[in-house]
Design brief:
The structure is a single chain. This protein has five helices and nine strands. With 233 residues, the protein is α+β, with helices and mostly antiparallel strands. It has two domains: 79 residues, no CATH class; 137 residues, Immunoglobulins (Immunoglobulin-like, Sandwich), CATH 2.60.40.10. Strands 2-9-8-4-5 form a five-stranded mixed beta sheet, with no helix packed on it. Helix 3 packs antiparallel against helix 4, helix 3 packs parallel to helix 5 and helix 4 packs across helix 5. It is elongated and about 70 Å long. 31% of the residues are buried.
Length: 233
């Protein structure tokens, strides 16, 4: 949908709304697209009305936030200069550069664990950790620069990815990075600490709630296996 908005393909924006998560944002973006293209008073009124009903998306939804900012700016410019068409020019750089910005330790229900001064968990492994930042499709989690083969969970593209830490095997910490469909720079440290208040360790026999297993999820040597995981080759 973002590519349709970027290309000002109004018909594709209109037809693709039903398959999106934030339908109100993309529906309003389509209305702004038609207003920019045809520049009629009725279409500008329709665009303004659609934008007025939108609830602000969460901070992590970078693409929706970027599109919404442009759509609102276009309507505001038209309102200030109603007799002139709104000129749209391509910007420079990326609106949402991909990056790994940090780690958040979560419990077995994928809820952030309070009281941690740094991302940490027991040396036995099994701590669920959320990858923070902006990414589209994490194809691999790297630990100390090497493919980790750890179990991962995610609901799909653009959704948070969680991974389960392997045993320490004598290490005090591990450096986490990711690979995505495009470059996703950034590293974050996870520390092994048996005193850390986490949900790590062996999961309960009833399994865990939360995101479905990723299609690429694997359990590497020594990593606790979980629902939907497969042994690494």
């Amino acid at each position: 949908m973002y590519l349709f908005a970027q290309a000002r393909d109004c018909d594709q924006l209109r037809d693709g709304v039903d398959g999106t998560t934030f339908k109100d944002i993309w529906r309003a973006t389509g209305a702004v697209c038609y207003a920019l293209r045809d520049n009629t008073a009725a279409l500008w009124q329709e665009a303004a009305a659609a934008l007025a009903t939108i609830q602000q998306p969460p901070d992590g939804r970078c693409l929706e936030l970027a599109v919404l900012a442009v759509a609102r700016a276009a309507v505001e410019h038209h309102n200030a200069h109603p007799a002139a068409p709104v000129a749209v020019e391509a910007g420079s750089g990326e609106a949402c550069p991909r990056r790994l910005g940090g780690l958040t330790v979560v419990d077995e229900d994928f809820v952030p664990v309070p009281g941690l001064s740094r991302p940490s968990g027991p040396r036995s492994g099994g701590t669920w950790v959320r990858l923070d930042g902006y990414y589209v499709r994490v194809s691999e989690v790297l630990l100390d620069g090497e493919p980790a083969g750890v179990e991962t969970r995610s609901e799909g593209d653009y959704f948070p990815v969680y991974f389960r830490t392997p045993p320490a095997n004598g290490k005090e910490s591990i450096t986490v990075s990711i690979t995505d469909t495009l470059d996703a720079p950034g590293e974050a440290q996870f520390f092994y600490d048996d005193a850390a208040p986490t949900g790590g360790g062996t999961p309960s026999e009833t399994g865990t709630a939360g995101p479905a297993p990723s299609e690429t999820a694997t359990a590497g040597p020594g990593a606790p296996a979980g629902p939907g995981s497969t042994d690494a080759p």
